[in-house]
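Q: 1-deoxy-D-xylulose 5-phosphate reductoisomerase, please. Structure only.
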Amino acid sequence: MTEPKRVAILGSTGSIGTQTLEVIRQHPADFIVEVLTAQNNADLLIAQALEFSPNVVVIGNESLYEKVRDVLQPKDIKVYAGSKAIAQVVEMDTIDVVLTALVGYSGLIPTVNAIKTGKQIALANKETLVVAGEIITALAKENRVNIYPVDSEHSAIFQCLIGEFHNPIEKIILTASGGPFRGKDRKFLETVTREQALKHPNWDMGAKITIDSASLMNKGLEVIEAKWLFGLKTEQIDVVVHPQSIIHSMVQFEDGSIKAQLGLPDMRIPIQFALSFPDRLKSDFERFDFMNYPQLTFEQPDLKTFQNLQLAYDALAKGGNAPCVLNAANEIAVAAFLNKEVGFLEMSDLIGETLAKAEFIAHPNLDDYVETDKRAREITQELITNKV
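A: Structure for 1-deoxy-D-xylulose 5-phosphate reductoisomerase:
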């Protein structure tokens, strides 16, 4: 890399954000932190800003603005607050790449604004493509913006395609760990607790994505994301359960050959590659040793027990605003599960009922997506209220 890239990290205090700063910490000559944003974790945001001296910091929770401002403004760091400020700050001319690690739907508008102003995107917020994949990919093409995937599975597909972009894909195979409840039946899942669901066997992630992984909704969202990232049809996207999480995903080409990307479960590798592409920067991350994994195993996902993955496939096949409804319903359902308002299996029921009740729009625009998200959340919340 010749010139250092100036990076905006949206969601710098979360799991992806903190690991991104680990990567930047290892490569101070290659990356400059230009913007940091967080929603509620003011203390960590302040500590990060004091270490990396960004130009701008945004705290989403406006009630924490004075706390952040009082510490950072004397250090010549600009401080703003609120979701609108997060969506606006990505337009700064000094930013080269925006890493979007916001949770859920909140990543959509900032990503749209970043693309419109020509910023390259390192995408860790899969919901952006789930909600509005057609609009996002069209905008990226129009503005000559590259979207570099940060999810380990999509990064794996991207890495397998380097040098192969002229060769048609027959299908891709997304791998799933199976989460903490792999092999369990519905009777078991009726009584699982929040604490059990938050214990992922392989990955250290935030609460929302950990629950999504346990319910296989995370894989469903990744199926939808893959469709837009790689221009695929629904039938070209397979999912296979791979408990060891060593093969991160695979591509099968028209000659029958399959390419796979392997490595230990470490999100810093796809983060670093998304930021440094087309270069691979040296790292001191732990290396994979085949002798420590003498067996790599594979299973079919259980769609009857873990219905969220099937719901995601159905929403993708239906198209229009259905994936947006799916995502909104899931975010409300997961929050309710984390608050112990609904059971684990009830999350799928809520999502399915919301998909049935929400208005279907075959060709939505951005305003339609915003309204769909709002209305789907209301429907799901009403269903929860009626159940309690």
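A: Brief note, in case it's useful. The chain has a mean pLDDT of 95.
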